[in-house]
Amino acid sequence: MDRPLTFFIIAGIVIVLFLHYSGSSFFPGEGPLATGPGGGLNEPPSPLSFNGSASGAPTGTQPSMPGQSFYRDEVTISRAFPSPADLRNEQLIIKRSGFTASENEKKQPISLDGWTIENRKGDRIQIPSAFYIPNNSVSATPIELRGGGEIIVITGDTTFGSSFQENTCTGYFNEFHSFIPPLSEACPEIERSELLKTGLNSSCIDLIERTPRCRQTKIGFEEQAAGNACIDFVKQHLNYAGCLRDNREKQNFFTNRWRVFLKRKEPLWDPRHDNIILRDKAGLIVNEYSY
Question: Are residues 196 and 155 in the same domain?
Answer without folding.
Answer: no
